[in-house]
Design a protein that fits this description.
One of its GO terms (biological process) is sodium ion transport. This is Sodium-coupled permease. InterPro entries: Na/Glc_symporter_sf, Na/solute_symporter, Sodium:Solute_Symporter_SSF. With 515 residues, the chain is mostly helical. It is 74% helix and 0% strand. The chain is built from 22 helices and no strands. It is globular.
């Protein structure tokens, strides 16, 4: 990077901070901070939902998969996310919006104390917060890894720079700042992604290979197959199952985007927009990485540095800075939205249970607490980021795929299925048992069993077994020990009906749809 690239990067950071300052004027209370007061346009919510769904891990961990295996990186990652969100636009988005509009909650987990009980709410809140600290830590490490490729700064310095800038704008501006910066980041991403796409196409032409002829090159042998290596049919189905819950609110930050729109119909519309973006845009982003074995030789065994090396080689200064900004835009979008979601969970769900003083917070005190919590969460996740390549976590992609996908299910099952009429008989016993058993299954499959099986447990089972265990127990216990009460039934009806009293979209009857 030269002075022009640094100017682009510094200018980007300045704009992000300015948006945060401007958004500060729109935040008068906790509802504004966490759900934009329910005033966010559906199209902004949809773009924000899309942008908050992935980070620079795309250009490191998933770049390594694309470098090694080719198009399976899209087929087993972006495609199931798009399909999962499309299903969720009918199944979950409207109901999550009604949590705010009809129950007047500001946290995705706030309704759980009435849907189940306080113990269930606290179990899901604490485990969700801890998982998010690890998840966001992996994101900081990913962007710091890319930054080191371009600038030579150390991993810890990169984590500090990106974390500090993000803390400024998302702390003072809340969800409005997150969404508006994500809109700006989406525009930057378009410019950077298209620039890289064109640069790779031109380079292939210079080598007399061409876009279509490239797939016949020995270096791309097998790269055109949709399912290869450890990413086979079982992994695809498991990932679709997981992402159906995760990207429709199971990881909390996407749920806030649904809550921020003005109505259930607008929430569904924003989800459909996000699904379309997930289906189309990643093809543009992934194509250069699929071609990268023809253009660069990765220095890291997993190929996670391939995109960074290719960018340095192909793009002129200025555009190089724009692509680096694109890296930052992905990570800062996701991490800021996660910070806002966790701040909501802590201040609305956890703190009032721990402290009598917190239960008496007024609007101003609650807003201050939300901002302090955001800073603390970012600090903890940055601390975890410095350890992401330690033997405990192994590497960035392990944290993202194994830990997050594997642990998300036990947390998301009670939260997401608790919204649906079909599961109204599943009460606190079903929720807590399925949660605890899912966490235990994750530990068993990934550690004791994995260590004692020759070749280890396949990745698809490491990430899917915990969710499957939680799902089966949640449904089974609900039928064996029904805990539906008139109060819980009334709450579920409010979530499943529109403001005029008409029924919401019915829950599909097939087993796959119920999942």
């Amino acid at each position: 990077m030269n002075g022009l690239d640094w100017a682009v990067l510094i200018g980007y950071f300045g704009v992000m901070v300015a948006i945060g300052v401007w958004s500060h004027k729109r935040v008068d209370n906790v509802s504004d901070f966490f759900t934009a007061g329910g005033k966010m346009p559906w199209w902004l919510s949809g773009i924000s939902h899309h942008m908050s769904g992935y980070s620079a891990v795309l250009f490191t961990g998933y770049a390594g998969i694309a470098y090694t295996y080719g198009v399976t990186s899209f087929v087993t990652w972006s495609f199931p996310i798009a399909l999962g969100i499309a299903i969720g636009s009918k199944l979950f988005a409207p109901r999550i919006n009604r949590l705010r509009s009809r129950l007047h909650v500001a946290s995705p987990l706030e309704y759980l104390k009435n849907r189940y009980n306080v113990s269930t709410q606290q179990a899901l809140a604490w485990s969700g917060m801890l998982l998010k600290i690890v998840d966001v830590g992996a994101k900081w490490a990913a962007i710091a890894t890319l930054l080191s490729v371009f600038t030579g700064v150390s991993l810890n310095q990169g984590i500090l720079i990106t974390g500090a800038i993000t803390a400024v704008y998302c702390t003072i501006g809340g969800l409005w700042a997150d969404a508006l910066t994500e809109l700006g980041q989406f525009v930057i991403q378009l410019l950077a992604g298209i620039s890289m796409f064109i640069a790779v196409v031109l380079k292939l032409d210079d080598k007399n290979i061409g876009v279509f002829g490239a797939w016949d090159e020995p270096a791309l042998h097998g790269h055109g197959k949709p399912l290869v290596g450890p990413y086979g049919t079982v992994f695809l189905l498991a990932f679709l199952f997981i992402k159906l819950f995760e990207y429709n609110g199971g990881m909390l930050n996407q749920a806030q985007r649904y809550m921020a729109t003005g109505s259930a119909a607008e929430a569904a519309r924003s989800a459909r927009l996000s699904a379309v973006l997930w289906l189309v845009w990643p093809v543009i982003l992934f194509f250069p990485i699929w071609m990268s074995p023809l253009l660069v030789h990765a220095q890291k065994p997993d190929g996670s540095d391939s995109y960074g090396l290719m960018t340095e080689q192909l793009l002129p200064h200025g555009l190089l800075g724009l692509v680096v900004v694109g890296f930052f835009s992905h990570t800062m979008a996701m991490c800021s939205s996660d910070a806002n979601a966790i701040a909501a969970v802590f201040t609305r769900d956890v703190a009032p249970v721990l402290s009598r003083w917190a239960r008496a917070w007024g609007e101003r005190t609650g807003l201050i607490a939300a901002r302090v919590t955001t800073v603390v969460f970012l600090g903890l996740s940055m601390a975890v980021a410095t350890q992401v390549n330690s033997p405990t976590f192994q590497d960035i992609i392990t944290v993202v795929i194994k830990w997050v996908a594997g642990l998300m299910g036990p947390i998301a099952i009670p939260m997401m299925l608790g919204l649906l009429r079909r599961f109204r008989k599943s009460g606190p016993t079903a929720a807590l048992t399925s949660w605890a058993a899912g966490l235990l299954a994750f530990w068993l499959v990934n550690y004791p069993i994995n260590w004692n099986v020759e070749g280890g447990v396949p990745l698809q089972y490491q990430v899917s077994v915990p969710l499957a265990v939680s799902l089966i127990l949640y449904i089974l216990i609900g039928y064996l020990k029904p805990e539906d009460t008139p109060e819980r039934d009334a709450l579920i009806e409010r979530i499943n009906t529109d403001g005029d009293g008409t029924a919401a979209a019915p829950v599909p009857t097939s087993a796959s749809a119920e999942a």
